[in-house]
Specification:
- By secondary structure, this protein is of the alpha+beta class.
- The two termini are 28 Å apart.
- The protein is 47% helix and 13% strand.
- Helix 2 crosses helix 3 (84-95).
Length: 284
Amino acid sequence: MSQARTPTLLEREPLTAALLAQWHAIDSLLDDLPPDRWEAPTPLPGWAVQDVVAHLVGTESMLEGIDPPVDADAVPDSPHVHNPIGAFNERWILGLRDRTAAELLAAYRDITARRAGALAAMTQDDFDAPAMTPVGPDSYGRFMRTRLFDCWFHEHDLRDALALPGDEGGARAEYALAELLTGLGYAVGKKGGAPHGSSVTFALTGPMARTDDRPREIHVAVDGRAAVVAALPAPATVTLTLDSRLFTRLCGGRLRPADRIDEIAISGDRDLGRRIAANLAFTI
C-alpha cells in the first residue's frame, strides 16, 4: 500500500503577499502597452501576448467558480494542445480572443482584485486544508504556490515576447523556484536517464544565485528514483553551471536546448550532463 503524501503547509500571509505582488508586476507590464504589442508571439506555441493574459484571466476566473465562455466542443484541435489542461485553457483563450487590449486588461484587473479579496478573507487553516491542485491532492496553500509559479513564468513569457526584461530574483522567484524543483527529479531521472547511484548538481548564477553572488547549488541524487536533496555525500557525477534565467526557461520548455548548450558549463560526466540539459523541459 502506498504511503499518503505529507501535505505541503505554507504560511498564508507571505505567500499571499507574493502572489498579489506577482499580479501587480504583470499589471504594470501591461499598463500602457500599445494594442499592436498584444499580438506579439510568445515562447509558447500558438499563444500571443493576449492569449497568455486570457489564460491568466481564465484560471483565476475558474477559481472564482466562473465557467469558460465557450463549450469544450467549440475548441478546434490545435497542434500545441497536448492534454486536457491545455484543452481547458483554450476554451478561455478562444472565448476572450475578440476582446480589445483595454477590455482584456480590465478583465485581468477585475478578476485579480476579486481573487485578492478572496485570499484576504482566508485563514491559515483554510490554506492548510486539503485541496485538489494541478499537481494532485495537497493543501490549498500549495495550490496558491502553483498559481504564483504559473503567473511568474507567464510574466517572463510576456517579457521575452516584448523584449522587456525584468527582475527574476526576490520572494516571487523563490516561491516559483520551490515549485519548479518539485519536478526536477523527474527531469533528471526519468527524462534525462541519470542512472542509479549517480548525482547531479545545478550551480545557478544570475538572479537566483546566492546573496553573496556565489552560485546556488541544487543537488539531485538518484537512489532508486531521482530526487532533490539538501546535500551530496561526495562530489556530483556531473555539475551543470548556468544562469538561472536559462535554467528556468529550459525547465519550462521555452527554449531549444541545442541552441543554448554552449551557455552551460558541464564538469564531470559530460555525456550525462548534455543528456540532462537536453531533457530538462517538464512543465505542463
